[in-house]
Amino acid sequence: MSAFLSARDVCQRLREAALGVLAFEVCEVMSQSGLIAVYIEGWHLLLDFAEGHLHHCEYARNCAGDEATLDTWQRYGTDPVSLLSTWELAQIERLLRDANRVQT
Description:
By secondary structure, this protein is an alpha+beta fold. The chain is 35% helix and 31% strand. The protein has 3 helices and 5 strands; from the N terminus they run H-E-E-E-E-E-H-H. Strands 1-2-3-4-5 form a 5-stranded antiparallel β-sheet. It is globular.
């Protein structure tokens, strides 16, 4: 059985991607649902991104197979996106918007 990823673990990956420390790659845009699958150096995230704004992280899995979902994080009162600073959130949204433009 895989271990649980905390919201802070996932937030740290997003934070490092926002700072440009880790590569951020959009794998798939699911325009009907507003979800975007991203890859951050061994981690797979499913982000809810609609109308140019990142709302929350639906799912995360690290390279060791540890994973968590929005339902798991909300049980503890938060999700990884809500832990980002305003600047970090803006950087991730910019990366998602730029990737969205390229794929459309």
